[in-house]
Amino acid sequence: KICHHHAARCCCCCGCCLLVLAAIKVYLNDGDKEPDFVIKGDFRSKRFSIYQCARGSDVLIAQVQRESRFSSSNAFLMSVMTDAQKYFVTIEPGVDAAFVVGLATLCDEIFNDK
After folding, report:
1. Quick one: how far is CA 25 from the chain centroid?
2. Which residue in 59, 113, 41, 44 sits closest to 83, CA to CA?
3. Residue 8: how many CA atoms within 13 Å on its side-chain side?
4. How far apart are CA 32 and CA 37, in angstroms?
5. DSSP code, position 68
6. What is the C-alpha separation between 19 and 73, in angstroms, rounded?
7. Average pLDDT over all residues of the chain
8. Whole-angstrom Cα distance, residue 44 to residue 83?
9. How high is the pLDDT of residue 108?
10. 48 versus 30: which is more confidently predicted?
11. Which pLDDT tens digit goes with each residue over 50-95?
């Protein structure tokens, strides 16, 4: 179950512009009322951190950052030619990399800029 109800909206009358998202809470199907993971960051620019919730504290397990189109000429040409998006993911030792990539992909799909 994914919860992302804490979105702040712009001040325009229709409220259509998503500006900030406080957190995405991830619940595993274990019956707890507290989230198992929390994803926090700037979802518009695709920079966020993934935390595992353990006994009231959040432990950083991964950081995700989208490569800027303008960080290098090769990145710009590749993104223009293939519409590819590259991400840099830093994962703490002992963390399931496939799970982290799955959460990062989920965030990318929720906040797809197309």
Report:
1. 11
2. 113
3. 9
4. 12
5. P
6. 29
7. 74
8. 17
9. 81
10. 48
11. 999 988 789 999 999 886 555 555 555 554 555 556 788 999 999 9
Position 7 pLDDT exceeds 50: no
Is this model's pTM higher than 0.90 or not?
no
Whether 81 and 103 have beta carbons less than 8 Å apart is answered as no
The distance in angstroms from the start CA to the end CA of the chain is 24
Pairing of strands 2-3, 24-26: antiparallel
Q: Dihedral through CA 34, CA 112, CA 40, CA 20, nearest 10? A: -110
How far is Cα 38 from Cα 48, in angstroms, rounded to an integer? 10
How far apart CA 50 and CA 2 sit, in angstroms, is 14
Q: What percent of the chain has pLDDT over 90?
A: 32
C-alpha separations of 37 from 20, 54, 60, 75 in Å: 19, 9, 10, 31
